[in-house]
Amino acid sequence: MRPSEAASYTGLSESTLAKLRMRHKRDHGPRYIKISGCVIYRRSDLDDWMDQHVVGGAGK
Which of 32, 36, 52, 54 is paired with 60 by a 20 to 30 Å CA distance? Predict the structure, then answer.
């Protein structure tokens, strides 16, 4: 999905996702694909990234 769709899906702004793609923050953001300068996120990568930020509640 494109950054605008990924922003809606995650609840983050497009700007925040863009900042997380910057070289010095790349390890903190979700994985993405870049084809011919076009950024694309896979839903599974966004889900995995969000799962890493779950706080509280009962463990698995």
Answer: 32
33 forms bridges with which residues in the sheet? 40
Give yes or no for a contact between 18 and 7, defined as CB atoms under 8 angstroms apart.
no
Claim: this prediction has a pTM higher than 0.70: yes
Q: What's the angle, vertex CA 19, arms to CA 35 and CA 22, rounded to 5?
A: 60
Phi/psi at 34 (5° precision): -125, 115
Of 55, 50, 44, 59, the closest CA to residue 12 belongs to 50
Task: Give the helix, strand, coil percentages of the chain, each rounded to 5.
Answer: 50, 10, 40
